[in-house]
């Protein structure tokens, strides 16, 4: 038995000295000092040793066990100090491309349009989406009893009927707030969400985005308005862009016009309405304390979704809000 323990100790230490990695070290531990290892098997054989030799054999078993465990810990520490084992990672290799996110096509369209008007001298104005009737209707020359105030055509807040709060139906509310807080001359654009209870289809949605433009100064005319919109169209859509103004009616502008642009739809050039515009009505100027005898101005409102759909060939407005990554990655 003593000779067997000597042989076990010598072979175990020889194999341990040859271990060069963590996996091999773990295999050695299991083979020699693990719960089912060779040392455990040798200890089980102690019962067969003659009674007079058991003290010497037991002492030797404990010495071998202590020696192997001590050498195991030394080897483990030495391997840890020498660095990781296994294949070496080349940190100069390019990493796996996980792909970058991108801004939503509507956010990018808003930034692009705002940048065009910024180059024309327009600053950006902001306003709340939850509005009162004064800013959404009264100051915009939409009197009480006007069909545009019908609850079926607006999102009034439940429980707020006394205050008549509603989700704004147009970004024209921001031009009122701009004229209330700034003295003319002023030149601003405002972008944001607006809300109307429209049935959802390929061209209508109950929430969409607009950009509102306002220019107040002395001697502003329709010529300035048309020039501004023409320059926008050429800067955003290209030098060949064709635009026109068609007579129309809006309560807050006089005269008023629809802003159309010629675009290719299903291979055919057609006139497409992008928004409304006109000279700011004197009643609107009076409502915010600006003298219409001294100051004049123009305003326009363009649909962001309509512009994005025409520019990128998007056939259904609902696709813009479904958050289908396969669709959004195209832009």
Give a structural overview.
The longest helix is centred in the first third of the chain and has 28 residues, at 54-81. The protein has helices at 2-18, 22-32, 38-44, 54-81, 105-119, 133-136, 172-181, 222-237, 282-287, 304-312, 325-328, and strands spanning 123-124, 130-131, 166-167, 186-195, 207-217, 243-250, 253-265, 268-280, 296-303. The chain contains eleven helices and nine strands. With 331 residues, it is α+β, with helices and mostly antiparallel strands. The chain has two domains: 2-81; 105-328, Bira Bifunctional Protein, Domain 2 (BirA Bifunctional Protein, domain 2, 2-Layer Sandwich).
SSE arrangement:
Elements: H1 2-18, H2 22-32, H3 38-44, H4 54-81, H5 105-119, E1 123-124, E2 130-131, H6 133-136, E3 166-167, H7 172-181, E4 186-195, E5 207-217, H8 222-237, E6 243-250, E7 253-265, E8 268-280, H9 282-287, E9 296-303, H10 304-312, H11 325-328
Parallel strand pairs: 1-4
Antiparallel strand pairs: 2-3, 4-5, 5-9, 6-7, 7-8, 8-9
